[in-house]
Amino acid sequence: MTKSIILYSHPSGPNPWKVAIILEELAILYETSWVAKEDVKKEPFVLKNPNGRVPAIEDPNTGVTLFESGAIIQYLIDTYDKTNKLAYTNIPEKYLTVSWLHVQMSGQGPYFGQAAWFQWSHPEKDLTSAIDRYTNEIKRLVGVIDRHLKDTGAQYLVGNKCTYADLAFVMWDQLIPQLVSGWDFKTEVPYFAAWNDRIVARPAVQKVLADKAKATSH
Ligand SMILES: N[C@@H](CCC(=O)N[C@@H](CS)C(=O)NCC(=O)O)C(=O)O
What we know:
Layout: E1 5-9, H1 14-25, E2 30-34, H2 45-48, E3 56-59, E4 64-67, H3 69-80, H4 93-121, H5 128-152, H6 164-173, H7 176-179, H8 185-188, H9 190-200, H10 203-216
Parallel strand pairs: 1-2
Antiparallel strand pairs: 1-3, 3-4
Glutathione (GSH) binds next to α1.
């Protein structure tokens, strides 16, 4: 497994960076191939991801091409996490980790994404009810994680090990101060805030946040 994986990405959205975090955590060789926004829905990129979005990967070590960040993360764990650094093998922990990844993919990603769309990109501007809907969903979901961490007394979503599911949340969570302006979440959801701080402090996450800042600065 010595050839570099190609990660198809573009600088601004959080989803490709979720995959970069797993690549960094597992010290997997990779190169980033930037796909311009106007090219994601066209050939040749749609031959890699029929849904026309980044991320996608190509792994020359196995011949696998994959799309959807959650599926890519599970592939990287199954193929490269031989010491189970970021995953459990025992049941139910193994599947509870999958549950939280699904919460990220079906809840956090889409709702945070819609909040961002209606605040920053939608052409019409009289959008109070749409913005309220999605910012309330952000607060609800953050509250779910806060309560879960409080109830279990654990450091992470599944027990006391940081898994790929915890890591999948961190890029979107970085946007909370911008998406829900004026929300003192450090005080209102302290278990969530401490969990987020633990994840952000990891060297792999720091590296990816620095790479993203660099990629978006020009
Ligand atoms: N569910 C997908 C979402 C991917 C996604 O929305 N990617 C954004 C960038 S963060 C994108 O490609 N946007 C361009 C577009 O939709 O045209 C995943 O997690 O991989």
